[in-house]
């Protein structure tokens, strides 16, 4: 059976590889970098002063597979790869795909790629930074409340000439583990974009839908008139004080909120002449105290011990209570405003930058850049792909990403199970320690051996721990109820004295009867003494 499974797996891999070769032959692979060879001489590291992070050519942990590694914590990184030929995003399907592994997790930082416009847009590889113009930004980003797989399109408004960032609404979250994940964006000719994580579609959106991108690619037809001003007589108050209302004559605005409780009586035993705090009689002036430099020494205060038994000390004052005559400051009631016109808004005018669009006017991709700031090291990028066929991307996922992921997942599962077992073993050890102490409780002495047998049995078979706990609880409850309600007294049986046949027997009948009486007394339930 095992041989058949391996044979089937080899056939599957061979078929997937054949698919890959067929697709590659059709020139559907525009760019692909496995990083099996060093990036030196192929990728260009930015010379900008802000980007001090060191990139390394490194193996993915637990694999022989190489990738591009973020090697230092709390640094900015920038590196770029120029494409041999710019990619036209307006022509058919375009697939953007890459793998990333957050080997130390990701608490605050990015792991996304930027697909850059041609250099005539105003950037140079050696000066690559966050201002370098891109067409698409895609990939994980996580910090604080931010946890998303970005997809941002920079699109040029044909009327204003301004490039605007359009963010995908409600993007998927970043996987929280430390495994290798593959991120795929499929740009389709029907204006749709699909975001896949590990080959599973997590988000589908339309470039032209205002529901999917913020701000929308197609601007609104009208905008608020920037020159419109609110008229001076425009009244936005929905309610106004009633001008005909008059304050009642008995309304006293000066009445206090609280008054003394005249019915209160000083508690008996109140110590008027005793202060609440007194000098600490045990305190002594420090030997190094200098009155001229430190001032006159005063003993620290402590609570007056006489006040502890008295209802109170010091001057007694009547407590305060709410004043029934208090009404506060009078104000007239509110009525509907007859001059109310609503909340003012500027009038809408035609948007001079409005345009209609049948398809996004994508700028071509001329380079791939990674420009990130991250607090974590250990971020590994691998298998960066640009293709013109989503089946090619699927084939690459099956042959390059999936085998690694399955190995990592099994390893993670084993580590999690080991950690769970260690936690369970630690818990059980604590439980056993407590049970051994329970066995030493004096009133359980009669059952000590039974309890110890249960504990030792559970230690050899840890899965019985819960059952042992239940058994011991039953024993304790049984004894508890016996102590409270008393056990059923056994009827005493008088035994006839037996005549000893010889003088050197095992004991007289009187001695045997006395021993029997002692055993019976020991077996009877012990009564608790009642305190008088």
UniProtKB/TrEMBL annotation:
Keywords, in A-Z order: Calcium, Chaperone, Disulfide bond, Endoplasmic reticulum, Glycoprotein, Lectin, Membrane, Metal-binding, Repeat, Signal, Transmembrane, Transmembrane helix
Disulphide bonds in the chain: 108-143
Position of the signal peptide: 1-24
Membrane protein topology class: Single-pass type I membrane protein
InterPro entries: Calret/calnex, Calret/calnex_CS, Calreticulin/calnexin_P_dom_sf, ConA-like_dom_sf
Molecular-function GO terms, alphabetical: calcium ion binding; carbohydrate binding; unfolded protein binding
Keyword Transmembrane on entry: yes
Locations listed in the record: Endoplasmic reticulum membrane
Coiled-coil region(s): none
GO cellular component: endoplasmic reticulum membrane
Described purpose of this protein according to its UniProt entry: Calcium-binding protein that interacts with newly synthesized monoglucosylated glycoproteins in the endoplasmic reticulum. It may act in assisting protein assembly and/or in the retention within the ER of unassembled protein subunits. It seems to play a major role in the quality control apparatus of the ER by the retention of incorrectly folded proteins.
The protein, known as: Calnexin homolog
Organism encoding this protein: Gossypium anomalum
